[in-house]
Every structure is written in C-alpha cells, then in structure tokens.
Amino acid sequence: MLRRNWIVILAAVLLGVLVAGAISLAVKPNYKSETKLFVALQDSSSVSELQQGNVFTQARVQSYVETVTTPVVLQPVIDSLGLRETPSSLASRITAVSDAKTVLISISVVDQSPIQAAAIAQAVGSSLIDAVEVLERPARSEVSPVKLSIVTPAVAASQPISPNVRLNVTLGLLLGLVAGVGLVILRSVVDTRVRGEVDLRRVSSAPVLGGISFDNDAAKKPLLTQTAFQSPRAESFRQLRTNLQFAHVSSNSKTILMTSSLPGEGKSTTATNLAIALAQAGQTVALVDADLRRPMVAEYLGLERGAGLTTALVGGADLNELLQPWGRDDLYVLASGQIPPNPSELLGSEKMREILDRLENSFDAVIIDAPPLLPVTDAAVLAQQVGGVVLVVGSQKVRTKDLEKSLAALDMVDADLLGVILNRLPSKGPDAYAYSYYSYDRQDVSGARGKKRQHARVNLDDPNGFEKILKGPERSESRLGAADARSRIAK
Predict the structure, then answer these.
(1) Fewer C-beta within 10 Å: the chain N or C terminus?
(2) Is 485 inside any structural domain?
(3) What is the number of domains present in the chain?
(4) Angle at 43 between CA 37 and CA 45, to 5 degrees
C-alpha cells in the first residue's frame, strides 16, 4: 500500500515542509534578553548572623520573584522607557525565576527588537532593586536590611529565539508524513478498485494467466500484429498463450470463453490477440464473436459483420460460408452477425451447442468473445457450454465487489475458471506486470503478418478441407501436416 502510494506520501511531506517554512518566514522574530540579580543582607558581621541572614534571604527571594511582574516594578519601567502598554501586557513578556538553593533572581524579557528587550530587562532589574528597598525598609530606619545587586547586565541578543525554523520544518515534515500515511490508509479503505494482483488476491485465489501493460497506442493499434514482434505487449500475449495451454491441458474441450465483469476492461482485444498468438504458434484457431450486444471483433480485424453467428443460429447460412479467414496464419473468424433482440436465448440454444461442437472438431482452439458478466447473463449461459472460462480484469476499471459478483456468477453455473488475465496494468510500479526482453523494430514482420491473404474457404464437413489449403500455392511450408489435419477432422 505504501509502495503504491508513495507519491501521495511524498507530496504530503513536501507540503508540510513548505507550510512550516512559510509560517516560519511569515512570523516576526522575537529576541530574548536576560539579567541576573544577587540578593544579600546588609550589616551581617558574625558567622552566625551570616547563616541566619542566608536562610532569611532564601526565604524572601521567591517573594521578590513574584514582585517582578507587579505594577510596583513595571510601571516605573513603562514610564522611564516611554512604553505604550499596560503593566499586565508587559508582564506577559517577562519571566522571573530563582533556584531554591541560591539567592539569584533571573529576569528575562522577550521583544521583537533585541535592543528593546535588553533595555526592558535592565530597567526591570533596576526597578526591582528600588521596589525591594522600599518594601523591606523598616519604619524607623532609612536603610533596608536587604540589598539587591545586578550581577549580569542585560545585553542585546544576536539571534532570535523564535521562530525556530529547524524545529518548525521538522514538525512540518512529521505532520506531513502522518497526514500522508493517513490519507493513503483512508484511500485504500474507500477506493476498492482492483489495481493489480495484490487486490485480486483479496477476492480470489484463481491463477493469474498473464498481465498486459497499458499501452497508449492500443486504442489506435489494438492488434498484436500492429506492434513490434518482440515488444513487451507482444511478449505478454505469447506468455499468456503458453500459460493458457498449461491451464487448459486437463480439459477435453478446445473452447475457451473470454469475458469480463464490466464493459471497457479489454476482453475483446484480449480475445482477438490471443487468437492471433495461437495462430502464430501454428494452431488452427476459430475466433467467435459471441458478444451479440456490442460486437467489436469484426471492427478490430476489418471484416464483414453483417453475416456471422446469428446467421448460423437462425439457419440463414451454413457455418462453412460464414467463417472468414484472416492474416497469414490459420485464423478463421466467425463474426457476430446481425444483433438479435434475444441474445441470451440464442446463445443458450441447442443450435449454439451444435456450432461449438463443429468448431471443436475442426480447429485446434476455439476462442469465444462473450459479453460482460454483470450487465447481462449471456456469458453465464455460454459458460455452461465451453471447456473453460478466462476472466479479463481491467486494472482500475473494476471494483472488488463487482469482481466478487462475477466470480459468484461463474461459480453458480459450475463454470471451469481457468484463470484471470490482468489487463491495463501500469508499466512501472508495484502493480506492474512487464517483461524485460530486448525489443527491436520488426515492422516488416508484423506488417507482413497483419496483411490479409486470399485463404481457401475451409469446409468443416470435408475431411480433405485443410489438406487442400495446405497444398495451396500460397504456402510452401506448413506447421500442420495434412495427415494430422485429416485425422483431427475425422475425429
């Protein structure tokens, strides 16, 4: 949590330091000046008298300390220095203390002017001497038995005592740190968006099949063939292809359903690019656009969408006539067709089961792009007819509650969840899921792979259908032998 939001914490710390520095510069500096007085008894000649006088003096010193801030002492100071304030306001800037074991009185004065502070401290000390002499003088005597003397004259301070810039900046730093950490904790509690695998683990223990980093160019160039051959994005889909083959190895079905919780998480581009990656590995792949509400596969691949899955479901054309070849590999696309008024009923029909069976018998892999789980029930209906389901989770697009609902919907229909694909991940930071392979420009390769070629029309009912394609003049070498293709179709 701290590594993910370190920028917020750093900003709060810097803000605290700046505010503390600004306050320190805005506050006018105060200077402190101090004077010390010594209290003694007069006319003490013998040792016993000195001892008695010392005890007497220590008992009287605290009374003299309290006298410092009284009008008897301060009013003469105000008059002599011409100060425009009352004794009570002046007393608030004066501090008098004394150690119980000594007969010394310390008087300190705080003022915005160092010279004024020294003048007031010196004047207060002199005024206290005069006041004590008057207060301690006997009625019939002209001399007071107590004598106060200034032993440390007040001097102007060279450095202000406040504001303490170093202390204020340190406090600002600590307060900013506490505020930043508190903000991060509050944000983590309030903001429940799934950002990476750490957030996913709070909801599910499903395996992560792969992660795809967010690419700014993906909106304009969504296809795998439009990026460099060894770019991080291309390598992500190849890694996803490998992990998915291991996750699906125990299933007898070749059909994989791609869905998400909400629209906009990137399931259609993920399904399309996964189908391209599987075809590039030498497999015969059928990509089915089963999102009969917002179909996007045909638009990404530049194919005709008017006839497709819905056409086959209502018996308008045979499946052989609706499969459209794409690219230089064995990738065939079954577009969505016309958008029907009852998608859920069509996808859950027996005709849909027959279409999937025919595709599984003729292709190595069948990838289905299904609608999101939460807005409609189409994906949940289809999940009962496929060999496995892959859930695409868009980083910062879905919240944990929505993800929990999606997993619960799949569990309710006993769907085989193969794993999760984390999409739109940041390229850097604690939630990154990046690859560090060397990349180089392979525009010639990707461009060649992205070009369409004239495929021979595959016939799902013809055992020699793939053999005719493989013997065509456009391919000198084949990744799939004719005998293997014949035996696969025969099965």
Answers:
(1) C
(2) no
(3) 3
(4) 110
Torsions phi, psi for 314 (to 5 deg)? -90, 0
Same domain flag for 83 and 168:
no
Distance CA 208, CA 201 (A): 10
- 226 or 272: whose pLDDT is higher? 272
Per cent of the chain over pLDDT 70 is 83
Q: At what angle do helices 482-490 and 350-362 cross, to 10 degrees?
A: 150
Q: What are the C-alpha distances in Å from 414 to residues 125, 148, 381, 407, 469?
A: 93, 98, 11, 11, 39
Asked if 210 and 330 sit in the same domain, the reply is yes
- Does residue 366 surpass a pLDDT of 90? yes
> Where residue 278 sits, what CATH number does that domain have?
3.40.50.300
**What is the bridge-based pairing of β-strands 388-394 and 255-260?**
parallel
Two tokens, residue 28: 């006018």
Q: Is the peptide bond before 29 cis (omega within 30 degrees of 0)?
A: no
- 266's CB contacts (< 8 A; 6+ apart) are 212, 260, 392, 394, 423, 424
Q: Residue 287 in 3-state DSSP?
A: strand
- 28: Cβ–Cβ under 8 A, 6 or more apart, which residues? 112
Is residue 20 located within the same domain as residue 41?
Answer: no
Is residue 486 included in any domain, yes or no? no
415 φ/ψ angles, rounded to the nearest 5 degrees:
-75, 145
Give me 228's structure tokens: 């460099």
* Cα gap 467→478, rounded to integer Å: 10
**What pLDDT digit, counting tens, does each position of 304-354 carry?**
988 999 999 998 899 999 999 998 999 999 999 999 999 999 999 999 999
Same domain, 417 and 308: yes
Work out the average pLDDT over 168-183: 92
408 and 362: one domain? yes
Retrieve residue 474's tokens: 């456009």
- Same domain for 380 and 307: yes
Determine what percent of the chain is predicted with pLDDT higher than 90. Answer: 55
| C-alpha–C-alpha distance, residues 438 and 443, integer Å | 15
Angle CA(334)–CA(337)–CA(342) in degrees, nearest 5?
A: 120
Digit-coded pLDDT (tens) for 30-73:
999 999 999 887 765 554 555 555 666 777 888 899 999 999 99
Greater pLDDT, 101 or 406: 406
Residue from 36, 52, 35 nearest 44 by CA: 52
Q: Return d(Cα 470, Cα 476) in angstroms, integer.
A: 8
- Shared domain for 128 and 178, answered yes or no, is no
d(CA 410, CA 404): 10
Give whichever of 24-28, 231-235, 285-289 has the largest mean pLDDT: 285-289
Dist CA 488 CA 491 (whole Å): 5
Kindly report the CATH number assigned to the domain that includes residue 147: 3.30.70.1130
